[in-house]
Every structure is written in structure tokens, then in C-alpha cells.
């Protein structure tokens, strides 16, 4: 059996990125980077949009507004390139150019359900907001982890993470602060049929 982790990096107000901001919002510190380096190896799950973005970075595309990658960003992309990745898409064509990627055209929820039952280790989403939402709705997510960086991007934020989510109860299983400014929280999620005060009579 595998464990499925949904793993988000966000602003305090729940955005996945922001126009004009570098990776990690420019606030990755030594404690956070060391923690990233200590994480166990995983198989990454992603959709077509995340694949196009990240494979572009792996191929040398630089984020808008930057002249070059910072060392921390380059190391992160290199590690992703080496990791096994499963890409769910009906629009991408084989062969995928990014190393260690497998293209799957079948239903993502059923494929991940089968992967969880038949493969050991950890499966982890990266970005891929709609994929993460679908896996959570299906009750397949074992751990839900959010690393919140200390910025609010009310004017420039892009990709609101939780839009379209069901109501979810979260049981905290861990937390940690990095570099005196970045907060990680980890939960066991439980999708709710209705909010506590919304039960049918």
C-alpha cells in the first residue's frame, strides 16, 4: 500500500503563486531548505498544466521577471527531474520530453486508487490544483500538508488553491516553523457531507 500526500506551498491567503514573485516568494531559508532535502523520495503526480510549467523550467525556461534561476530554484527543479513522475493528461502527446515521466490517459482517480493498493512508498501531488481536489473528493488523500510563507498576495496572487473544494475536517498531525517565519502544518483530512450545523433534520 502507498500513502498519498497532497503537498502545497502557499501564501498566507492561500495562493499558489503571485505575479512578480520568485519561487518560494524569495523567502526560503536554510532550515526550510534543509528540511526539504531530508524528505523521503516520492513518486510525483501531476496534471498537464503543471507538467508544461515544470518541464519548461527543467528545459531552461526562466520564470517571468527573472534573468536566471536562483541556486535554490535550480536545485529544486533538478531534484524533480530525477524523481519518478506520473502525468495525467488527455492532451499531451508521447513521448514526454521530461525525464522519468509516465503519461497516463486513464481516469486519474481510479489510477491513483489502483496505485495506492498495489505499490509501496509515497505518492505526492505537486501543484496540480484540480487533480489534488479530485483525489481529495474521492477520499484517497492520507495526508494534507501546507507550507505557508509569510506573505499576503491580495493584489498579485494567482491560483487560489481552495476554490471548488468540498468542506473538509482536518486533524492536525504535525507542525513546524522554519527560519522564524515559515509555518508547516500537516493534517489527516476527512471530507464532510455537510458542515456540522448543516445536518439534515
UniProtKB/TrEMBL annotation:
It comes from the Bacteria. It holds the Pfam family RibD_C. InterPro entries: DHFR-like_dom_sf, RibDG_C. Residues 5-182 form the Bacterial bifunctional deaminase-reductase C-terminal domain. Transmembrane segments: none annotated. This is Dihydrofolate reductase family protein. It comes from Streptomyces cellulosae.
